[in-house]
Amino acid sequence: MSEPIRLSKRLIELVGCSRREAELFIEGGWVTVAGTVVDEPQFKVDDQPVALLPGAKAEALEPVTLLLHQLADQDSETGRLSMTPESLSEAHAEGRRPLKGHFARLTCLAELQKGASGLQVYTQDWRAERKITSDLAKLEQEYVVEVSGQIIATGLERLNRGFNWKGNELPKVKASWQNETRLRLVVKNPPAGLIALLCTSVGLSVVSMRRIRIGGVAMSKLPAGQWRYLASKEKF
Fold first, then answer.
1. Topology adopted by domain 65-137+223-229
2. Which residues of the chain carry a pLDDT beneath 50?
3. What is the distance between the alpha carbons of residues 45 and 160, in angstroms, rounded to a whole number?
4. CA-CA distance, 214 to 70, in Å (whole number)?
């Protein structure tokens, strides 16, 4: 039995490419070992059949942006670590090949406040990072807030027009009822504690909050704990 060698070295022997080309082919998901795609150049092989898929391109991976339906007990780091090929939403998986390189060098943008669930954004794309970073103060964020208590008279109107409450100048927001216990709030770049303060000011207590949209990108029907790729047509 031959001594196991790196997959990149075996590919060089197989197709006569350079070491860098071999690494790009493998990292791009174009190489199979015994019929299974392997995207790690350092993966050790012995006598398994190795093949280069048709249409293979020795090109660096395009940067991706990933959208996670983060759980309330997660933070941005544990959320990032929870994104694996297995937790990709089945409804959004068609035509996508999650590769190891898609989970490297991810930056979290517009982090959720502690205890909130919902849309969390991670990107490798400097264009998405620049867009959100520079426009964050102007981008609408939409939340569904589970509340308890009885809203005061004209409370919804007060939220929509903005008002002063106990010395705090509260910004106007777009507020409406989703159902009897869920308040829909659209606000621009809310600092930690603002949503709870808005609710308290009209007699309500926050039970939970879930972000469902940032700018023009909505979480849609992404199941809790799962993620999807940002589609090319979606813009923040």
1. Alpha-Beta Plaits (3.30.70)
2. none
3. 63
4. 14
